[in-house]
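Render this sequence as a predicted structure.
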Amino acid sequence: METRAVKTFNKRPTMRDVAALAGVSIKTVSRVVNNEYGVAPETRDKVRQAIASLGFRENEIARNLRSGVLTHTIGLIIEDISNPFYSSIAKAIDEVCKLHNYMVIMASSEEDPDLERNLVYALVKRRVDGLIIVPASKDHKYLINELRNVPMVFIDRPPQGIHVYTVLIDNEGGAREAATFFVKQGFYNIAVIADNPNVYTTQVRVLTFLSTLKEYGIEIPKENIYIGSHDAKTAEKVASGFLSRSSPPDAIFATNNRNAIGVLKAIRANSVRPFVIGFDDFEVSDLTFCPIGVVSYDECALGRIAAQVLFDQLLGHEDTSYPEIIQVPTTLVIKGHINQ
């Protein structure tokens, strides 16, 4: 994969920088920032232009402290804190931050692009020293000004419209291995249950899985593919529908942990026992009542690597050998005995 150089962030602009660019005093800049009277309209415009040009943001919490002082906080925006996958990532990030005496401020975007943008602005306004983001938005050009001053690392999904360090799972490799396993085990009537079609991981996992099967001469009919299951309850309902058919699938590929859990719940209530492979391991997968496969990886590594890359930028120790996209490898783990 071709990589591009990622721009290292500059020192966060201060009121002194704004004053110098606008040709006014720091006190005048302070008056404009705080919407105080006593500043001529043309001067106010010059200050605002300088603020926009530099990407300066007022420190909401510590506006009276000396400008440019680090807050020793990192902002973390994830998709859903209730998902064990994201909880593991957050824990790993927090552990790295503690080693540097930093605190993590965490928020959930709930897959809402507008909420993601508002959370980013809120965290930047509170002058976090860096950001780690699981993106929900499809356009991240709004971050261009922020990137001048705040180092960022994206995790689990790549950003759109900007180039920053990104830590991903090897989604293609995991989906390819799952499809190959089904074929080699003689499973041909295969179903797929996947998450939101707009999510990057869903797109890559489904497309890779289907294209790999096609290489073996297997095409899954559209009625065996369900995309849009964001929780275990939906996956259980969809899987129950698959299993109630006169010719139920003999294998099901679930593209994340929530969908895998939903599929297993449906199978438990049914006499049909298709083989299930879920992308993502989950805590009780060893306790299931039937053999399953999981595309496993070290989710904590995602968090650790992202935090390490962020601190290398923040502390000026950036390793120029980092690729723009860093991938965490996957492996297919079969749990239980397969009866064919």
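Summary. The mean pLDDT is 86. The longest strand covers residues 73-78.
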